[in-house]
Amino acid sequence: MSLAGFLPQDVSLTIAMALCAVAFVSGTARGFSGFGSALIFMPLASSIAAPRLVAALLLVIDFVAAAPLLPDAWRKADRKATAVIVLGALIGVPAGTYFLSVLEPVTTRWIISCFVAALLLLLLSGWRYRGKDHTWLSVGIGSLSGFCSGLAQTGGPPIVGYWLGRPIAPIVARANIVLFFGASDFFSMVSYATTGLISRESLVLSLIVGPVYALGVAFGASLFGRANEKVFRGICYGLIALAVIAGLPALDGVLR
């Protein structure tokens, strides 16, 4: 049986190959720099296939890719501080999932493009929170990140900017981030499943796109230490900006 025979009914071979190409590029960005995969993948992929389908697809393949990191993160993280932010995600993720499930696809795409553009500006600004630790602020950051994750799997920049600015060891900050997103992804899996977003189509597609994404992550990781990190980060920022522009619904008549 050909590859086309395994594809969901609404996904052609051309669409699947395009999603694989986007997944490889976004996976390479994540493998090298640890960020940028969702910010590249979501604007482009949601212009190729339904936003609900590609958000569920990214959640599944990224959840599988990140799972092996959780045991080490559990040992090294400040679990008490992380639990406070996770509480925020427990609020934000269902809210973001709700909007993803009820909004029209074009509306969702506009929101994704605006979100990603705002998050790119946050990354470019180099923002790091260096103030005092407040419970209400931690819950708020967790809620914002959770909402972005529930809606478009783009919750990385707020939580990374918050944790990397804290006066703690980098290894603890990284473990906190990994542990937070493990919990956030779990909430998203439950939330997506209960709203029907985790479907047979998204699972089948993940079996095709997932390995290509993993290859991109491995390729990006192999470049770490060989390529200039500053230059590569600049390339990632440029790719995110291009993804935002190319994914704009206003350009559908020109690019698609």
Automatic annotation (TrEMBL):
Transmembrane listed as a keyword: yes
Coiled-coil annotated residue ranges, if any: none
Membrane-spanning residues: 12-29, 49-70, 82-101, 107-124, 136-156, 168-190, 202-225, 231-251
UniProt keyword list: Cell membrane, Membrane, Transmembrane, Transmembrane helix, Transport
Cited InterPro entries: TM_pro_TauE-like, TSUP
Membrane-topology descriptor: Multi-pass membrane protein
Pfam families on file: TauE
Compartments, record wording: Cell membrane
Record PANTHER family: MEMBRANE TRANSPORTER PROTEIN, TRANSMEMBRANE PROTEIN YFCA
Family indicated by similarity: Belongs to the 4-toluene sulfonate uptake permease (TSUP) (TC 2.A.102) family.
Protein name: Probable membrane transporter protein
Organism this protein belongs to: Bradyrhizobium vignae
